[in-house]
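Hey L., structure's done. Input below.
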Amino acid sequence: MHRSRWLHGVLLLALAGVRSVQADGWPLYRGDPGLCGVAPGALPALALRWSAPIGASLKSAPVVAQGKVVVGSDDGTLRCLALADGSAVWKCPVDGVVEGPALIAGQTVYVGTDRGAFHALSLSDGKVLWTFRAEDRIVGGANLVGRPGAPDLRLVVGSYDTKLYCLNAATGAVVWSFATDNYVNATPAVAGGLVLFGGCDGLLHILSASDGREVRSVEAGSYVAAPVSVDAGSVFLGHYGGEVLSIKAEDGTVRWRVTPGAAGDAIVGPLAVTPELVVAGSREGSVRALDRGTGATRWSFRTGGAVEGGGVVCGGRLVFGSEDGRLYVLDTGTGRQVWSYEVGAGVSTPVAVADGHILAGAADGRLYAFGAAVAK
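Output:
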């Protein structure tokens, strides 16, 4: 069979139906390997349940599994808290500032630091199991290639040393690496045997997860600092130039590209992708819902500060934070605000939605947990 025809077939199979929303908590950044930012279930009537000090300032997004919340901070420590009340379970020094989200796979936590250290730790007690060292900062999270518990489980993670690494999840040994022409800033997406990510080289890269071979690359138009989202054969990304793109993964065709706000209004946070919408936040403080098929703006909502953490969709609601110090919940059909909470410090990290809770980190160094209001 001709190579291009074979690759076409592989991409069709690999990218069909890749979404698998986590049923247990939020162990993976953005909730699924395609990084679409969709949580199952519905949100309850919300109230602040607890808050806990994490560091001087919080840049790392929380992840949740087995009733535990794991989050890093700028004090060089990874912390594990109880989801129920925010009490400390363990903390572990990890040699550097943690800006990216951790990843929980089974009984292991994986996290990188700004000193290039990438650790595997025990979820039960925070003991370091192994450490891999890149040649520069790791500011994004890792993603899984395979299922937790599988003997051939692998991880993919990028670094400012311009490389994307694939590591053996049990040992940290390098399986393969792929070199780009600039920093790899964000968590890579994984879809059915493929690894997809953008970088500061302005390209969307699509690699074979088995050997790191590049299947194709697509010009994005500017730096891609945020994760790309992959669902049902389509790749969605936003970039520093303020554009949002929909790309056909099987051949790299750009279906549409739009500038929903002002030109140059950087999109540096992740997109939320549903069967109907692509939702993007921007540095000038707007959130816009675009029609998934055409890119046309369905609605927009303005906050008082930058929206850099992206949003999460849950049961017809969009949850996100803003640098104006508020957490917002909007109706995804209309963009109407249905709830907000004044945290009092900028919220620039992506939220996690898990087990009836919303978790959001703020610039005051605290992690805030919202859940069902308790009847008095």
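Residues 47 and 376 are 13 Å apart (CA to CA). The helical segments are 3-15.

-- N.
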